Amino acid sequence: IATRRSTICPRDFILYLIFISSSLPLPDGFCARKTIITLILLVGMRDNMAKFRASFLALFSCACVITDAVQPMNCRGCTSQARDPNDGFKLMLLSSSEAVCLDGSPGGFYYRPGIGADASKWIIELEGGGWCVSTEDCYDRSLTAIGSSKSWPPSGCPGMDGGSNGMLSGDCTINPVFCNYSKLHFNYCDGASFAGYVEQPVNFNGHQLYYRGRAILDASLDAALALGMSDASHLILKGCSAGGLAVFLHLDYVRSRLPASIDVVGAPDAGFFLDHAAWDGQPSMTPVYASIAQFQNVTANVNAKCVASYAPADQWKCFMAQYTLPFITTKFFMTQDLADSWQVSEILKLPQCTPPRVTPSCNATQMQAIFDYRGAMLQALSPLVNATDSANGGFLSSCFQHCHQNINAIWTSEIVANQSESASVVSWYTGGPLAKLVIDGTVGDNRFCQ
């Protein structure tokens, strides 16, 4: 079953079954009860996998069993961690009738007030979690926690991007500079990186779907300003995966929405998805991005300078970071794997293999495809890489993973050019002495990859 369905992580299923059968204590993040329920549901819904995956996600959230109902990550890309209900984050639902999730339930965010002198400094996390690529996909997604707020618990930062860890951690031993900042986690439930807006709901088999990502972003910003962010001195807009893309898309817009007195910067993580063919030369995710941009009316809500630079037929490109990057004027520091595991799987569509320092299984031809993808990534990043006087920075690793900033081990211990990720971000942010931009070497050569 596991090998037939890309939404199932075989590694974790095997481990679950071993732990269940041996009566060993389960490690953190492993959920025996949910696994048993999963297997029962799997048998009962074997003829309707879409219904199964949507129903499961709506009811349960257990690390890396299923990470996305529409654009599934495989185990190599899974970053989900268990939610800590005592981490200080509290749910706040939006009152705007416009700012609704795919199913029409209210959008919202989780908020943790800052402490002491750092309370005037804020971080906004734009949650990731793939995209829905058709009306049917968006309906499936509307039955999950990334398409509906109906199952959101009252407390605890969601674990999709790592939860309250790494850069969002309140533990000052892990996160000494940002631990006491005021923090907001903008929940993702629109399926288009907070960029879509269609005024009228769309009908799918009698179910109303709402494409309102931009309205959710606006209403969340309004609510955050009312909470005290209007008096902030600093704001970091960050996000992972589809949330990292959202940072690229909306950074200048968010800057324009806030008082000029606030120092606004961006920190996109794993959001630089390439316009690149599959390794066999066939079209890959590019038609998907173009489709999303069209049916969710995305181009009306992304970087206006980017949109103005393209003919109408090509304006969908501004839903991709590589085309938006040259037009961003607000400072940012990006973290990105040059051979991002999600992109190697879902864009390059390389048959299942892992490069050195994971569990080596790629043959020479496959490794060359990964090396070439790394080169294409650097080429697309040339506005950053080749800039001589840029205020921007980056931590570009050649590790085989997806998302960094909210994973403790990566945040504190992954090193490129003798700089850890956390030290690199902090030095750039505070004007410290470390290099603003570090670029890793060959894929598989970095012994610090987590």
Report what the structure shows:
- The protein is α/β, with parallel strands linked by helices.
- It contains 14 helices and 13 strands.
- The protein has helices at residues 10-22, 32-44, 49-59, 135-142, 213-227, 242-257, 286-295, 304-308, 321-324, 341-346, 364-380, 382-385, 408-413, 421-430, and strands at residues 90-93, 108-112, 121-126, 182-186, 202-204, 207-209, 234-240, 263-269, 333-337, 393-397, 415-416, 419-420, 437-439.
- The strands form four sheets. The protein has a six-stranded mixed sheet with strand order 1-2-4-3-7-8, with helices on one face.
- Strand 3 (121-126), helix 4 and strand 4 form a beta-alpha-beta unit.
- The longest helix has 17 residues, at 364-380.
- The chain starts with 9 loop residues before the first helix and ends in an 11-residue tail after the last strand.
- Mean pLDDT is 85; it is low at 1-8, 19-35 and 40-79.
How is this fold's topology laid out?
Layout: H1 10-22, H2 32-44, H3 49-59, E1 90-93, E2 108-112, E3 121-126, H4 135-142, E4 182-186, E5 202-204, E6 207-209, H5 213-227, E7 234-240, H6 242-257, E8 263-269, H7 286-295, H8 304-308, H9 321-324, E9 333-337, H10 341-346, H11 364-380, H12 382-385, E10 393-397, H13 408-413, E11 415-416, E12 419-420, H14 421-430, E13 437-439
Parallel strand pairs: 3-4, 3-7, 7-8, 9-10, 10-13
Antiparallel strand pairs: 1-2, 2-4, 5-6, 11-12
